[in-house]
Amino acid sequence: MTTQKIYFIGCDIGGWHGTNDGFAVCEWDWDEKELKHVCEKSGSLFYPTEECIDIFIGKAKEEQAHLVIGIDAALAWPVKFAELVASAPGASHQPKFELNGAITNPYLYRETERFVKTKINITALSAPGANFGNNSSKGQALTAWFKKKLGDNVYRPPFDCWDEGTAGNSLYTLIEVYPAASMKSTKFKGLKWPPITQSMESLGDSDIVDAKRAAMTCVCYARTVGMLEGNTYPQVYTPADMSDKAGQIQKEGWIFFPHDGEGNNL
User: Fold this and answer.
1) Closest CA to 214 of 11, 53, 38, 49
2) How far apart are CA 25 and CA 9, in angstroms?
3) Strand pairing category for 172-177 and 66-72
4) Which of 12, 59, 108, 234 could form a disulfide with 126 if both were Cys (CB 3.0 to 4.6 A apart)?
5) How far apart, in Å, do the first and last CA atoms of the chain sit?
6) 34 assigned to some structural domain
């Protein structure tokens, strides 16, 4: 377990030309053994990427602090959808699947979204099939910006093969989160954003609030992979919970969201 400073960054992604981005940061105080608020902003933050975020990343690098960054957007596309797009100039891809509801359509939904549906009965937004594709393409561009700023040592599970040991020791981590899924955990809903006494459930709904829930999901991820100890924060589902689809998940991505069970990967 690390004792280095850890910053948890939540990024709520709006559309390319909108002003509804959210950015929230908290840090783990090892002396007080509690979370502390760092900053929050909303508006048109990510493109062009605002200077204050650039400065914050520089500050974290100078401090050699751990960063866990959670982006609320689909960070990859369904494998079949990607194949369809790649073959579009030659018009060579002929879709084949049975229509048993949209969630089963491999051109609209990823395996991780089907997992969410199975576990908590939420139908996630489809990046290829809804306006969410706008936010997701912007989130994918933001991911590339983070990688450029932080260097090659950014761990991006499951695109970088999922391994809990690697996850717990990585200096910089970037994951996909989904605040609506996080809010299905009773334990998560009771967590409080510092320094206020309001819970995740009572904060309301706004871009800033979703950014805070994204950052708090990162805290739960850190607990899961051993960066933090104790039972305050619920653990998250990991790609190990769908190991039979590991190859496809590594291409499509994974939504990290908390559950109320005890122990890893329940």
Assistant:
1) 11
2) 5
3) parallel
4) 108
5) 21
6) yes
